[in-house]
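Below is the record:
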Amino acid sequence: MKPGYIYIMTNKRHTVLYVGCTNNLVRRVTQHKTHYYKNSFTDKYNCEYCVYYEQLPNYVSAIKRENRLKNMRRSEKIALINERNPEWKELVTEHGFCIVIPAETASARTP
């Protein structure tokens, strides 16, 4: 079974946060960076920087985790990013993973 990923994209000034879910993180980040889906939220707000991601055992787990993240306050999402990527470096580009962040199960952090 293929893993699933949840991720957070932001724009250059970090004023917008977008939470997404995919089974191919590099492909999906590439789509955001190239504005593949015109007039989408990420296209409109120039969300081109992947600053957070989690790998989960499968896509169904990723969807559940995505829904939990989407229901979090902005401050909680920022705390997640700061915990694992305090410099808000770009973690994934169209060329692959720039920085591999430690794998953690979502259940270890979130009930």
Observations:
- The first helix runs from residue 25 to 33.
- Strands lie at 4-10, 17-22, 49-56, 92-93, 96-97.
- The mean pLDDT is 89.
- The chain has one domain: 4-102.
